[in-house]
Each structure stands twice: as C-alpha cells, then as structure tokens.
Amino acid sequence: MSKRAVNILVPLISIILGLVIGAIVMAVSGFNPIDGYVALWNGIFMDSYTMGETIRQITPYIFSGLAVAFAFRTGLFNIGVEGQLIMGWLAAAWVGQAFELPKIIHLPLALLAAAAAGALWAFIPGFLKAKLQVHEVIVTIMLNYTAIHVANALIGVISGGGERTDKVHESASLRAHYLEAMTDYSRLHWGILVALLAVVFMWFLLERTTLGYELKAVGFNKNASEYAGMNVKKNIILAMVISGAFAGLGGAMEALGTFENISKLHAATGIGFDGIAVALLGANQPFGVLLGAILFGALKNGGLNMPSEAGIPTEIVSIVIALIIFFIASGYIIRVALERFGKKRKEEK
Amino acid sequence: MSFLEVLYFIIPSAIFYAAPLILTAIGGVFTERSGVVNIGLEGIMIVGAASSIIFNLTFADQLGNATPWVGLLVAMIFGILLSLILAVAAVSLRADQTVSGVALNMLGLAAAVFTVKMIYDKGQTDAISERFSRFDIPLLSDIPILGKMFFVDVYATSILAFAVAFIAWYVIYKTPFGLRLRSVGEHPMAADTMGVNVSKMRYVAVMISGALGGIGGAVYAQAIAGNFGAATISGQGFMALAAMIFGKWHPLGAMGAALFFGFAQALSVVGGSIPYVQDVPTIFLLILPYVLTILALAGFIGKANAPKASGVPYIKGKR
C-alpha cells in the first residue's frame, strides 16, 4: 500500500473506530446507538437551519485547529488556545461595543484587536520557553484558567457589574441578513469566509515564505537552525504569537458573529481543546485542518440534538472525539496492521 | 485577627487543599520516573472524583461512616482503569504521550459528566451526606502553638497523603523495584539489557499514578467539594503535575511543592476573611494559584533534571 494511502486511511480508520466504540458505550449505557447516531445526523443536516448552525460551529474550530496546528508545525504544543481564544473574544467584544466607526474600519479593527489579544496571551509562554526553557504545556494550561478569571473580571468592569457586555455595534458585526435568511434564521455569519482566508494564509506563510521556512526549521531541529544562523529564540516567540493570533481570531468569530457579545464563563469553552483534535486529524496541514474542523464542528453541533431527540447526554460526542485522538496518536498500530494486510494481498497476487 | 490567629486559620486550610495535590503529584513522580509523561492526571482526578461521589451518594445509607473510605477504593479502581488506556497507547502503541494524555483528560471529563447526566438527569450531583471528618490528634494537639497549627481538626486524608509521600520516597530510592523504575526512565536500553522488563515497569508505574490520581480526586471531591460537576476539578491535576516538576521529580520535593500550591489555593478560597488579604480584589486571589505555578516553573526551578527517557517510547533494538 502506498504511503499516501496509509496516511489517508489512518485518520479514516480512527474516525470509524471512534464512532464504533461510541456506539458500544451508548449500548452499554442502555441507549439505542442507532437512535443516537440518527439524532446526531439530524442535528447536522436536518434542514437549512441546522446546516447553517453547523457551518457556524465549524468557523471557530477552523481557527482553533489552525492555532494548534501552527504551533505543532513549529515544534510547540499550544494547549493554551482556549485561553487565547477567550482573550480574543473579550477584546473583539469590547472594541465592537466601545467605539462607533464606519464598518470598513470598525470590523477590521475588532478582528485585529482579537488577534492582538490572543497573540499577547500566547507571548507569555513563548517568551518563557525561549528565554527560560520553561515547558510551554503547563504554562499554557495555567494561562487558560487565568484567562477565564481575568475575562470574567473585565466583563464585570466593562458592563458596569453585569453578567455580559453590550451587543457589538452593527458596524463591527459579522452577522449577515442574507446568510440568515438563506438558512432559516440561523446564526450563520460571514466569519466562515474569514476562516477560509486564514487557512490559505497559513498555507502561504508556511510553504511560500522565508519566515515560514525558518519557523518550521526551528521546530524540526533547534541546533541545526541555530548553526544555520537563524535566531531560535525569536522564532519560538514568533511561532507562539502567530498561533495565539489565530486563536484570538477564533474568539472574534464568537464575539462578532455568533453571540455579538461575551458573557461570564463558568468553565472553558472547549473550542480550544477540540482544536487539538482538529489539528491532529488534519495532520497539521492547513487544508487538513479545514477537513478536521468540518468533521468535529459538525459532530459538536449535531451532538446538541442528541439529548432532545434520543435522550442521550451530548458528552457522548466528546467521548468519541477523545477516542479518535487516541487512535490517531496510536497510528503506529494501524499502520502496522495496514502494512501486514497490504503484504498479504501482494503475496496472493 | 492577630498574626498567630491567621496562621491557625491558613495553615490547616493549606494542608487541607494540598492533600489531593500531594497524592496526585506522587502518582506523577512514579510515571515520569519510569519514562512516561502523564498529562492525563487531571482526567484521572476527574474520574476519581466522580466515581467516589456517585458511590458515596448510592451507598451512604448502607455503609455510614465508612462510605468515603470505600469511595477512595472505588476511585482508585476507576483511576487505574482509565490510566490503563494511557499505558496501552503510550507504552504498547508508541503514541505521543502528551497528545494521548490530553485525550485522556477529554475522555475523563466527558465520561464523568456523561455518567452523571445519565444517572441523575442533570450536570451536577447533590451534595454527599457522608464526608471525611476531622479529629484532633491526641497528645500532639496539646503542644503550644504548633499543636494548634498542625494537629487540631486534622483530616485523616491529609495524614494519608503525607504517609504516601514517605512510602513513595522509600519505594523509589530504597527498594530494588525503585531502582528498576528509575533505570527504565533514565536509560531503558541499559535496563533492558540487564533483564528489566521495560514495558512491564512502565505499565506498573502508569497504573500507580492512576491509583493515586483517582484517590487524589476522591479526596478532593469528598473532603473539599462535596459534590461533583464538570467544574469540580479545575486544574488540580495540572497543578499536581507542576508540583512534581517543581519538586524535581522527587517524592518529598513534590510533597513540599504541593503544600505550596495548596497554600495558594487556600488563600484564594479563604482569603476573604483574612485582614489585609481581604482588601485585595478577588480576581487576584482567584488567579493566584495559577500565576504562582507559572512563576514557580519560571523562576525557582533552575535547570530541570527530568528523567532522561521521559516522554520517549522505548522501541526494542532501536539505537
């Protein structure tokens, strides 16, 4: 079997295994797995409204997936996408409601603020990693919790003690009457186009620029890159900052599109963590991330329909996603199985 | 409130909050010493917390006072079961350990909330009736000043945590098992050549961390939280991980670091009733444990001496 075929088959088999074990979990828990997956399917494709909502859910997943994938490509594990996304969400919501500007300035400004806030939040672990060799995994996790508390406190300040900020002005909103009308008044917004642009941007940055080449080189081999004259520390910080900017833009999708404000959070949004799954499924390639985001965004949105239609807690979807990550991470065994299978077929011929 | 009174107040709370961290951090020491990075401690704690609370709610009438203790055992078993998934992925299937640890966290949280919703039809359980109780240690509690700081209103679970730390130190540094454990984490190929079964040692180490992480979660749930919801365990597993690093992969060092993080957590919870501290805006107290963790990692740790083979799957015959 060719290497390319194996590379495509591993994620596919992982998805199937994840769904099969998810079905077993449902059956063992006393639910009917077929009802469960029918409800999931209906939650994704039932009518134009649910399809609009599915695309809306996919949008932030593209960004969180790109953020994780970008860090992975440069040798960093950014578990802090969650926190960076929350800071971006907050920044966009604040800029959107605090100023009154023409749309052509206001919307880009709000997006830029979100990217900057996410980048700033990611600068901390990048800086610590580059200058003090502190491992980024624990720092980014701790910053996730810090982000939730800081955002909640700032929401209180912005809204004068309230639970949520005011709605962003029309001039900063990504909402589109055209898209809403087309999808039976779902919350579908223009953010999906911004997300698609970001996919192309990441591809271009990594594959077609010197900067991208350097970032990847540092990820592959720090010592060799240093020897070749690259500034390793600068590249580590820059990689985290760009990753954080993607995450922050993911927050802007929620702030300017889906909710048009930010409410106090009791727990993590989950978008950042699912970004890890998205990136892994997409093999850290920009277009792979797009496919991963479509799958997991659809699963997540469809899962919301499961409690009402089949009485199954929506967490089953998270279980399936976690299992898929396990199987992709353990791809070695699937590869071995595929190779044996491939050999046997050759011998038979 | 005088300074001494503040100490009487804050030291017992610090130990109270540290106990689950100590237990989980010791579990982390075992896995990392064997060469497996266990980011999944958070998920293991979540499952331990959920299983002990569900057990406690179901059997409190039959078992009475003994319920929380049997709950610890139940949590231990579920912790081991969950950790086995990591062991299979990371040791046998050579998966990326950090990634599978993250997946373990997602799985632990999702499975726990799924089960709670299935049983109780809501995302959060009721409060348990049988909690761990406190007692005064005879004789020691009569020592002036120190007695009131350390030996009054003590939780038996805190004593358990300290005991586990010392036992772990003895096992890791004074027994043949400990020597083998450390050798597979430092140089698995050398250990393999000397006849140590690397995979078996790593399986055992991951299962020990599952047992201790499960117990840690159960202690947190049954002594501190009193119920279970999606946000009951919020970063304690990662804090335990940081305590392990801060303690330089040494059981007693990890215990000391866990006490420090316990203090930070206690301050964020009870700080409102301590003079001077109560004037600080709540937000700073809330983020204190997390920020202190980052500062601890950044500032005081120096050149970290992690076990050499930590995070690297061992493949026989590979140079």
UniProtKB/TrEMBL annotation, chain A:
Bilayer topology: Multi-pass membrane protein
Keyword Ubl conjugation carried by entry: no
Gene Ontology molecular-function annotations: transmembrane transporter activity
Locations listed in the record: Cell membrane
Signal peptide region: none
CDD domains to which the protein is assigned, alphabetical: TM_PBP1_transp_TpRbsC_like
Keyword list, A-Z: Cell membrane, Membrane, Transmembrane, Transmembrane helix
Transmembrane annotation, as ranges: 12-34, 54-72, 105-124, 188-206, 236-259, 271-296, 316-338
Main location: membrane
UniProt GO cellular component terms: plasma membrane
Domain of life from the UniProt record: Bacteria
InterPro entries hit by this protein: ABC_transp_permease
Pfam family, one: BPD_transp_2
Protein name: ABC transporter permease
Organism annotation: Ureibacillus yapensis
Automatic annotation (TrEMBL), chain B:
Gene Ontology cellular component terms for the protein in this record: plasma membrane
Cellular compartments annotated: Cell membrane
MF GO annotations: transmembrane transporter activity
Its membrane topology: Multi-pass membrane protein
UniProt KW keywords: Cell membrane, Membrane, Transmembrane, Transmembrane helix
Pfam families given in the database record: BPD_transp_2
Protein name: ABC transporter permease
Organism: Ureibacillus yapensis
